[in-house]
Amino acid sequence: MEQQFVSLLKENQNLIHKVCRLYTCTEDTHKDLFQEITIQLWKAYPKFRGEAKFSTWAYRVALNTAITLYRKDVKQVKTTEYEKCSFFISQEEYNPEEEEQLKLMYKAIHQLNDIEKALVFMYLEDKDYTEIAETLGISEVNARVKMNRIKGKLKKILNP
């Protein structure tokens, strides 16, 4: 069971890093959140029935863990202002214009609430609304409506 879990975790670790990037701004808090998500995945793994894809199940656990830790006062992940954050993607992968657009998008996304961040994240990962709804525990129609509202909200943030 342990070997299988480690293999699945290795295959899907990028999605966990992306969730961490959405909810943290520093390398240390990113590592802490990644570790906590991994622990929660391991604790919950015996209950994983395989009815959904492992990645869908892992998204749900990762997002719930991030949101829970983000909201708790005792275990709150400390964040800093976006301008003070070190960016996690190396500059040589992007031209300056793309990098600036990406920074602006992340800054706008950081202004959304936790559920909205999760929805945007999955949408940007090209997940269909069925998978988004299943992962977030909402109806597909609700996911579509929320995403349309979030798009409008992001447009207002990016183009005041």
From TrEMBL:
Residues 8-73 form the RNA polymerase sigma-70 region domain. One of its GO terms (molecular function) is sigma factor activity. One of its GO terms (biological process) is DNA-templated transcription initiation. Residues 104-154 form the RNA polymerase sigma factor 70 region 4 type domain. Pfam families: Sigma70_r2 (PF04542), Sigma70_r4_2 (PF08281). Keywords: Sigma factor, Transcription, Transcription regulation. Belongs to the sigma-70 factor family. ECF subfamily. This is RNA polymerase sigma-70 factor (ECF subfamily). It comes from Flavobacterium croceum DSM 17960. The lineage of its organism: Bacteria, Pseudomonadati, Bacteroidota, Flavobacteriia, Flavobacteriales.
